[in-house]
Design brief:
heterotrimer, A alpha+beta (383), B mainly alpha (275), C mainly alpha (260), A: 383 residues, alpha+beta, Rossmann fold, OB fold (Dihydrolipoamide Acetyltransferase, E2P), 2 domains, six-stranded mixed beta sheet, five-stranded mixed barrel, 9 helices, disordered C terminus, C: 260 residues, mainly alpha, MetI-like fold, 11 helices, 0% strand
């Protein structure tokens, strides 16, 4: 199954318009052979449309799509060496598992014996050995998507596309399959392009993540880059749980910037484009905030540490972590802490502190109020 | 899309549209009787059809039987549909299947079957005699308006029940529970929730039954007896017996106008109700 | 308490409705086995004599064959053009779609009399001889909307992503239709074909105008009923009935598919 080398994709200035509204705007990107790239963004950002154009189910109005240098822009789906795992369960109900998985091979006139052999291999790869004769209706959601994956892989496509294949599954199954997908990627050394709106999913599996918004690329980078150095407010608020606070930028001193926050001045790392005197936004990861019960005296602080006095507004215990909402400096911050030790009480006074280098200042107005904690069932353990 | 539908459209065009247009043309042509036509434009066929007092009284009879049939189907069918949809669980599909079976039972046989029920020695008379309620058989049942009515209802009731049941089934069960939760009694839930939501189906069933009953020739012919003339039989007689195709055509187009008016009225109510 | 009584009332009422729907026909079946010549009460005993006279009568036999020929021809034509039309209307969301749909459903809204005389005038003007073929034309027009309804309702529930999957896996459009779409919608198409057969088998009015001198089974029955009381009518009616019902049993299986 590894004989065909994985392909590289060049997507050149692709634009697609639906009924006057652009779904994808001048999308330009290279995906290297063997990479696992996720397209991440909210509904309507164009990620699925782009994926479907790579798969051949939509055709760009402008631009080209090249596979290993060969132009596939106008090719129909059955002529592309690319396969897709669809969002809904699209196993053929009138065929059993083996017939489903071998469908593409039989179309390509592979002999029954050879098909059978490869089907068995594929099913083993997706951890469903012995499922050949099962009827499709008897499969669980997770099993069905694995069969769909086997069905796609067995054709040895140069690029594998995934259109939110796990979104309809239960959380537990989803987590399991995410891990397995990563394993399968490693075993196959394939080029995977994965569409999702779940940022945790994208971050945990990908080599690179493309954050999209309204048809355009907001930022491309490794998960760590996106998390630590978001290029825009949108990325900052979409990836991870961040607080975004409107502040006023004051002075720049070698790489760090002073901003005014609720009467105090704090320093933070400046991002590109921050202009002293202009409106800016302070981005603070929820995990970066430390909370301590308030001491008698004022907040202690220290060098490189910002410290403010605040009050706990809300406590949510979700297992390994606790989510606090704290009113401080005229705004409400979301903080996540380990639940070890005693929990802070609602209404109690706290010292709120963070390391200044972990705070980022981005240009633009921080109109985004404290986002509600993502994924209510997330216990922060980050599987 | 056009490529795929073209065979169907071709067939419909040739075998439906053209004949209808032909008929329309014929209705404006002078009839010389016995199939002879003189190709000059005239409105006389329509004028005569409308002016003839016999036509008018028969039209009234035809349409009133149709209206009564349609109403009876709805009144009789509604409680049955209600029971099947809302009160049966496992038996529901079986009940609906039986209704479908009844729908597909041969139309002709069902008509003929009334001979055995309504006739002088039929089921009803025999039953009444055995119960000593009558001495002599009732003869007015068969070959009368009543037979026609009963037969019509028998034929169109299954269809009405299916349409009503289908529109009732599309009401989510939560809706009714919600209405009870908000304080409505069973009767109120019915009148305020079920009834309004099934009105489109009701209206559609009425219209369809009305139209098909008005144009029905076979039932009155078999069961109506001497008083059985309907508009349909006049059209047939004009066409077949008297060879007056223009006259028959004109009359049938007048009927189609009535039908079209009914269908348009139905679609208007649908829009009014915002469905 | 009153709710429960209300439940009982409704149940009994519905039972009466079903009795009303089925009893007359059951009577006919019953009397087809009657030993004596009366086709009304009282019932004298079981006998197959009427069935024997039906099967030995050349009139009846040729009528049965005529009905069969017309019905099969109708089914063949309607299944093909109806399926194509249903695919077209459910797949392609163009503006003409709703009008096309209404056009395809029109014949069901017109009384058979009207369709019959319209076709008759066409055949007269084009000097076409009336035959089983012309009768079949009438049947095709009459049954097309019903087939179309069955087929398009199934196609609407068909997930287009199944076809995209097949294309993705290398199948051409035609292969996709053949190997994926058709096998999946086949039960519904068969149900539709059975409906068409049933409707055609029973059709009397349009046939009357378009068939000329031959008789189909319903036409024969109709003329016999009008003429005189011939007890073999019960037997032949039961046969007519069986023809239209045997197919219902088949439809039930395929309706089960429609509900999944």
């Amino acid at each position: 199954m590894r004989e065909r080398p994985p392909g590289s994709l060049q997507i050149e200035h692709v634009t697609k318009v639906f009924e006057g509204a652009p779904a994808v705007k001048d999308f330009n990107m290279e995906i290297g052979a063997g990479e696992f790239v996720s397209l991440l963004g909210p509904s309507g950002c164009g990620k699925t449309t782009l994926l479907r154009m790579v798969g051949g189910f939509e055709f760009p109005d402008e631009g080209r799509i090249l596979l290993d240098g060969q132009d596939i822009t106008e090719l129909v789906p059955n002529k592309r060496p690319v396969n897709m795992v669809f969002q809904r369960i699209t196993l053929f109900p009138h065929l059993n598992v083996a017939q489903n998985v071998g469908f593409g091979l039989r179309i390509a006139h592979v002999t029954k014996a050879e098909t059978s052999k490869q089907v068995t291999e594929a099913l083993e790869l997706v951890r469903l050995p012995g499922f050949e004769r099962r009827e499709v209706q008897t499969l669980s959601g997770g099993q069905a998507q694995r069969v769909a994956l086997a069905r796609a892989i067995v054709n040895r496509p140069r690029v594998l596309l995934f259109d939110e294949p796990l979104s309809a599954l239960d959380l537990q199954i989803r987590r399991e399959l995410q891990v397995e997908l990563k394993d399968i990627h490693r075993e196959l050394h394939g080029t995977f392009v994965y569409v999702t709106h779940d940022q945790e999913e994208a971050m945990s599996m990908s080599d690179r993540v493309v954050v999209m918004r309204l048809g355009e690329i907001e930022q491309v980078g490794s998960p760590v880059e996106l998390y630590r150095s978001p290029a825009s407010l949108f990325v900052a608020s979409f990836v991870g749980s961040s607080n975004v606070i409107p502040v006023k930028a004051l002075r720049m001193d070698d790489g760090s910037i002073a901003v005014e926050l609720g009467g105090t001045v704090v320093r933070a790392t400046a991002s590109e484009g921050v202009v002293p005197g202009a409106d800016a936004a302070l981005v603070l990861r929820a995990e970066s905030i430390s909370l301590e019960p308030a001491n008698g005296g004022g907040p202690s602080g220290g060098s490189g540490i910002a410290s403010l006095r605040g009050r706990v507004a809300d406590v949510r215990f979700v297992g390994a972590m606790v989510h606090y909402r704290v009113d401080v400096a005229g705004t409400r911050l979301h903080a996540i802490q380990s639940s070890e030790g005693s929990l802070l009480e609602e209404g109690s006074d706290v010292d709120v502190s963070w390391r200044m280098e972990e705070a980022l200042v981005l240009p633009g107005r921080g109109d985004v109020t404290t986002p509600t904690p993502k994924d209510e069932t997330d216990d922060g353990s980050g599987v | 899309m056009l490529r795929l539908t073209s065979p169907a459209l071709l067939v419909l065009g040739l075998a439906l549209l053209i004949p209808i247009l032909l008929l329309l043309v014929q209705s404006f042509v002078v009839s010389l009787g016995y199939g002879q036509l003189q190709y000059s434009f005239t409105l006389s066929n329509y004028a005569e059809a409308l002016k003839d007092p016999v036509n008018r009284s028969i039209a009234i009879r035809t349409f009133s039987i149709a209206a009564v049939t349609a109403s009876a189907c709805i009144i009789l069918g509604y409680p049955a549909s209600f029971f099947i949809t809302f009160r049966l669980r496992r038996a529901k599909n079986l009940a609906l299947f039986l209704v479908v079976v009844s729908l597909f039972t041969s139309y002709l046989v069902r008509l003929y079957a009334w001979y055995t029920v309504l006739g002088r020695d039929g089921l009803i008379n025999t039953a009444l005699k055995t119960l000593h309620l009558i001495d002599r058989p009732i003869s007015f049942l068969l070959f009368s308006k009543w037979a026609v009515l009963i037969a019509f209802v028998n034929v169109f009731l299954p269809f009405t029940i299916l349409i009503l049941a289908s529109s009732m089934q599309s009401i989510p069960a939560d809706l009714l529970e919600n209405s009870r939760d908000l304080g409505a009694s069973a009767v109120q839930s019915f009148t305020k929730v079920v009834l309004p939501l099934t009105t489109p189906g009701l209206v559609a069933a009425f219209a369809y039954t009305f139209v098909l009953t008005s144009g029905d020739y076979t039932t009155p012919a078999l069961l109506g007896g001497k008083q059985s003339t309907t508009l349909a039989s006049i059209v047939r007689d004009q066409f077949v017996t008297f060879g007056n195709q223009p006259g028959g055509a004109a009359l049938s187009f007048l009927m189609v106008l009535v039908f079209a008016a009914v269908y348009v009225a139905v679609s208007q109510t649908r829009r009014y109700k915002g469905v | 308490m009153s709710a429960r009584r209300q439940g009982w009332v409704l149940a009994v009422y519905t039972a009466f409705v079903f009795a009303f729907l089925f009893v007359p026909v059951l009577m006919v079946v019953l009397f087809s086995f009657n030993k004596t010549a009366s086709f009304t009460f009282p019932f004298h005993g079981w006998s197959l004599q009427w069935y024997r006279s039906v099967f030995s009568s050349p009139d009846y036999r040729s009528a049965i064959f005529a009905s069969l020929k017309v019905a099969l021809l109708t089914v063949a034509i309607v299944t093909v053009i109806g399926t194509l039309a249903a695919i077209a209307v459910t797949r392609y969301a163009t503006r003409g779609r709703e009008t096309l749909r209404s056009i395809l459903l029109v014949p069901a809204a017109l009384p058979g009399l009207f369709l019959g005389i319209a076709l008759l005038s066409l055949f007269i003007r084009t000097k076409t001889d009336l035959s089983l073929g012309t009768a079949a034309v009438g049947h095709v027009i009459y049954t097309l909307p019903y087939f179309f309804l069955v087929a398009s309702s199934r196609l609407l529930r068909f997930d287009p992503m199944l076809e995209e999957s097949a294309r993705d896996l290398g199948a051409s459009s035609f292969t996709t239709f053949r190997k994926v779409t058709l096998p999946i919608i086949a039960p519904a198409l068969i149900a539709g074909a059975l409906v068409v057969f049933s409707l055609s088998w029973d059709e009397v009015l349009i046939t009357f105008f378009t068939i000329g001198s031959q008789n189909t089974l319903p036409l024969l029955i109709y003329s016999k009923v009008k003429q005189a009381s011939d007890p073999s009518i019960n037997a032949i009616s039961t046969l007519l009935l069986t023809g239209s019902l045997v197919f219902i049993v088949g439809v039930r299986k395929f309706v089960a598919d429609l509900q999944t």
